[in-house]
Specification:
By secondary structure, the chain is mainly β. The chain has one helix spanning about 1-15; strands at about 25-40, 50-60, 65-80, 90-110, 110-130, 135-140, 145-155, 160-170, 180-194. The protein has an eight-stranded antiparallel beta barrel with strand order 1-2-3-4-5-7-8-9. InterPro entries: Beta-barrel_OMP_2 (IPR025665), OMP/PagP_B-barrel (IPR011250).
Length: about 190
């Protein structure tokens, strides 16, 4: 896993260096709400876990209408376990450090679409039988430590540097070996470019 992190970090640094004019690189922060669940033939789609994401980004212009945007952020994902007979309500919590490398296409002044690969590194996995309190956590270790995903979204960036965005990401990797189970996350949030 350490090798994967180093490769991803090198890709991010190299991506920014490839930008035509590094003087125009902007750094920023972003955060918001995740509506995460899982999808796949081997698992009925459970209720989504509503949680958060928070992280950093850089935007490097490649031309007047195209930018490269690498990011790194913490993403709380998983799903709710509800309405099961003889089972209390709970959450299956799988949290990641996500590293997307997105191409942004400006289609109008401030309005852009973005898409690209996303590399997820699992940092936490547990079942929480009391999601609204500090107790009730039961650690598990059944989910793979790495998740290759695709991400796409829509964003509007104001001249002040604030932006609003919505995004969807889908895991191409199986979360559990030989089980058709994949991350599926809708997110909405705000950010600021310095």
């Amino acid at each position: 896993m350490k090798k994967n992190v180093l490769i991803i970090a090198a890709l991010m640094v190299g991506s920014i260096c490839l930008a035509q004019n590094t003087n125009n690189v902007q750094l920023g922060v972003r955060g918001g709400a995740n509506f995460a669940t899982v999808a796949g033939d081997d698992f009925d789609s459970p209720d989504s876990r509503t949680s958060f994401y928070l992280g950093l980004l850089a935007e490097a212009p490649l031309s007047d209408h195209v930018s490269l945007q690498p990011e790194v952020y913490y993403s709380a994902q998983g799903f709710d376990i509800t309405d099961e007979p003889d089972t209390p309500d709970a959450q299956f919590q799988v949290d990641y450090i996500q590293v997307p490398v997105l191409l942004k296409f400006y289609i109008a002044d401030g309005l852009n679409i973005q898409a690209g690969p996303q590399f997820g590194f699992k940092v936490n996995e547990e079942i929480d039988f009391d999601p609204t309190e500090d107790g009730g956590d039961f650690d598990t270790d059944s989910i793979n430590g790495f998740d290759l995903q695709g991400a796409a979204g829509l964003e509007y960036k104001f001249p002040s540097g604030f932006f609003i965005q919505g995004r969807y990401s889908y895991g191409f990797s199986e979360m559990i070996e030989d089980v058709d189970l994949h991350n599926s996350v809708w997110s909405a949030g705000l950010g600021f470019m310095f």
